[in-house]
Amino acid sequence: MKRTDKSDFIEKYSEKFGNAVVSILANYRGLDVETMNGLRSDLRKLENGEFRVVKNSLCRRILDGTDKEPLNEHLYGPTSIYFGYDDPVAPAKALVDFAKKNDAFELKAAYYDGRLLLPAEIAALGQMASKPELQAMLLGLLSAPPRNFVNLLANVPRGLLNVLHARKQQLEEGAEA
User: Residue 143: left (phi > 0), alpha (psi -120 to 50), or beta?
Assistant: First the structure.
């Protein structure tokens, strides 16, 4: 790689590391091209993220002196990085599921919320509810009180209507006898 290409790489990836909410490192040794393309295709479906194969020595230079420097000890062998710019759970879930299906794919480490995560912690992150799921739960919680109040208000006339209907049937049965 030429010196200008290296400086462009460092500048570009410094920005990626800086903007990423989560950075997940993985070892892809032993995967064939078709399997890697399948993984890339699955990860493209996720919003606000990108999957890259990186050069370890250049990444070490980028991470030196930053808060993400603990990732340096995991930059060995073939390394791929997923940069997640929004939701940390969806990529963790996708990569953990992929690692379960493909023994050759190994999660190395991740950096999220100011700390280094090891593979077991990445798996735990992947089991959490994703951002859309949390938004749906919050919407359900926020809409429950008004819905319950409307049901309460509707029950009063509904109850009166049921009493009147029962009385009407009682009078009709008494008139027939």
Answer: alpha
Q: What is the pLDDT of residues 120-142, one digit of tens each?
A: 999 998 888 877 788 888 888 88
Read off the pLDDT of residues 59-83 as tens digits, 9 standing for 90 and up. Answer: 898 998 888 999 999 999 999 999 9
Cα separation, 165 vs 11, whole angstroms: 77
Spatial strand order in the sheet of 106-112:
49-54, 79-84, 22-27, 106-112, 115-117
SS3 80: strand
pTM: 0.72
| CATH homologous superfamily for the domain 3-128 | Ribosomal protein L10, N-terminal RNA-binding domain (3.30.70.1730)
Angle, vertex CA 90, rays to CA 84 and CA 94, nearest 5:
100
| Residue 39 CB burial class (10 angstroms; 0-12, 13-18, ≥19) | buried
Beta-carbon contacts of 163 under 8 Å, excluding residues fewer than 6 positions away, are none
